[in-house]
Amino acid sequence: MIGTLDNLLRPYLSRVGHLQLPTFVVLVSMFGGIELMGGWGVVVGPLVVRLAKEALDILESSRAPENRAETAPLREPTQNVHGESAK
Q1: Spans of all domains in the chain
Q2: Residue 80: phi, psi to the nearest 5?
Q3: How much is the average pLDDT of 19-30?
Q4: pLDDT exceeding 90 applies to what percent of the chain?
């Protein structure tokens, strides 16, 4: 059954788009989608997983520092405004 399902759906899904997910994840998401939504779950399951992955990637990139200067630890100034040494 799995082999037949794979032989029928893989060519169709490869034409529709590239999910860039491991095969096992696609298979599990297809079965989960079938369990939740019936026939449409074959397509919707992997798409939901891919959207969740993209959302996590966007969240991770938004939390990454833009440059290292912003995250450098603060140092005490060696001179104050008037040019005197700070102690």
Answers
A1: 21-63
A2: -90, -170
A3: 84
A4: 21
The position carrying tokens 């082999």 is 3
Which distant-in-sequence residues (6+ apart) come within 8 Å of 40 by Cβ? 33
**pLDDT for 53:** 92
Instruction: Compute the average pLDDT of residues 71-75.
Output: 58
Burial class of residue 37, CB neighbours in 10 A (0-12, 13-18, 19+): middle
CA gap 83, 67 in Å, rounded: 29
pTM of the prediction?
Answer: 0.55
What distance in Å separates the CA atoms of residue 18 and residue 43, rounded to the nearest whole number?
12
Residue with tokens 């939390």: 63
